[in-house]
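Q: Could you fold this chain for me?
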Amino acid sequence: MDELELRQLRCLVAIVDEGSFTDAAIALGVSQAAVSRTLASLERALGVRLLRRTSREVTPTATGLRVVAQARRVLSDVADLVREAASGHTRLRIGYAWSALGRHTVAFQRRWNEAHPGTDLHLVRVNSASAGLAEGACDLAVVRRPLEDRRFDSVIVGLERRLCALAADDPLARRRSVRLADLTGRRLLVDRRTGTTTLDLWPPDSRPATEETHDVDDWLITIAAGRAIGVTAESTAHQYPRPGVVYRPVRDAEPVAVRLAWWRDDPHPAQQAVIELLTGLYRAE
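A: Sure. Below is the predicted structure, expressed as structure tokens.
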């Protein structure tokens, strides 16, 4: 089979849509003879007859109907691909796993729209280690732990306090803050893929038991029920206030570094502007 070309599919669709070779030639901006040759080359490549031609009309064969339908899908996919590539500098997708930018999220969105009206900003939640970078779901990503994948670069844009999430009726909830030692003997919910909490926060002989979770809603439901506690970055408390859950600072825990990450060999043109805006927001706290 000869290799198919997009121009052949466009020609077939144009003939069917316009109803004649003459009108298809006008729509495509080519000669009628070129339309005939292109269709003939497509039929040779596929080894089937696609159109019935009479002096009055041109109609697809049964096989032609199926090929036309598939051709439309292929051409639509190609058009989407072109639009996606062309919009790369006019759209900015920033991924995040659990929480975006906490108290700074709304300010970031509004200031970005004011300063960069030509670049549409979209925040995308992807619960993966790279917050959507590796999956192609975003152009930049907000992450709260170092990315070991050498394909990515990152920079720290701010720091956030580490908080403990507790059921509202937990005895520790009556305190203004807690210490890591207060959590020894508790059951700790952790997300090993994206979370910032590991047992390394505690000495080896006083670590809490752990239970794994993969979703912030499940995390909150379990904590509200009093079945476990959580330790998380401050942004989680701002993005996910929940009845039955209270957040208390962990005063002897190291803060969480907030990083902006990107593809090392394909940074988005807006990367530096995002870094400057986020750094300014965190410094202004």
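A (continued): The first strand starts at residue 51 and ends at 53.
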